[in-house]
Amino acid sequence: MATILRRSSALAPRPDSIPLALALTDRQGHAADLSRAYIGKALGGDDRPGSLHLLMAAGGDGTSLELVSTLMELEPEQRSRFLVLRLPFGTGNDGSEGRDLVESLGRLLGPCGLRSSPAIKCTPAASGGHEPFWAFNIASLGLDAYVARMTNRLKSLFPGDSYKLWVDLSTVLYDRIFHVAPMDITALDAAGAKVRELRKPCLLVAVGASGDRQYGSNKRILPDEDNVCAIAETGLLNKLKWKSRIERGLHRGLPIVDLFSASRLVVEYGDRLLAQADGEVVELGPADFPFTVEVLPDSYDVLVPESP
Q1: Answer CATH for 122-298 from 2.60.40.10, 2.60.200.40, 3.40.190.170, 2.40.110.10
Q2: Where are the beta strands (DSSP E) in 124-161?
């Protein structure tokens, strides 16, 4: 923070004032409520004509998810009046604009612009009763959703990051708690053409808003340009042998790993299964399938440094 204060104090005064509102959250879902209230006020005409509104989330992945999900409730023309800056204040900051405050807040200390970012829409079958939900970094099915569930539960009792602990435990326990059944996955490109079909039991399937994405506090599940990773069920010895490579993003080429690119996945499954969207977990049952995961380009705007 001292670096940010030193850099900001060296800037020339702004020619015009900028209205600023600060709101503090005190419960799950509060960030979404506050965002809707502010967005409603802005769209109700309480602003200057042609102005842009910067929505800043100072929290973890859950806070960021709530804020940006409220933007996705708007029509595209309304959404274009807002842009996002997510500050890394949580135990997990995989979706933030930077891994530290110097990088993220530094975007406000020089010329800046906006960049359109993709969103991930997760749609369970209507027969299951679940509403569609959003992710903006990674959505996934299987083992890592179980890790996220257990991490969230432990965090509610003991503050801190227990993700690594639950990764280690889940490597041994997951398929004893959740039956890993054959999964049918059809992957499509943006034009609707089929790019991949998988028919096998999978420990996890992860879909990123793009390639080169991480979750679980820096675990590089999507280590390069491909945005889909499917990891097949295997024996315990193989899990232990390959776990470190997967955590470090060195899993391309492993016999249990499929890495490829797709715009939409349609998943069929006949058992219960956990899904996670940026760390928030939903339990799915057979009635929730087919389950569709779709990457929607140019969905919302993010504050970025202006290119030199």
Answers
A1: 2.60.200.40
A2: 133-135, 138-142
CATH for the 2-110 domain, from 3.30.70, 1.10.10, 3.30.2010, 3.40.50:
3.40.50
pTM to 2 decimal places: 0.89
CA-to-CA separations, 100 to 56, 64, 84, 96, in angstroms, rounded? 15, 15, 16, 9
User: What confidence tens digit (pLDDT) does each residue in 198-251 have?
Assistant: 999 999 999 999 999 988 767 899 999 999 999 999 999 999 999 899 989 999
Return d(Cα 203, Cα 165) in angstroms, integer.
18
Alpha carbon 55 to chain centroid distance? 17
Low-confidence ranges of the chain (pLDDT < 70): 1, 46-49, 92, 155-163, 217, 307-308
Task: Give dist(CA 36, CA 69) in Å, integer.
Answer: 10
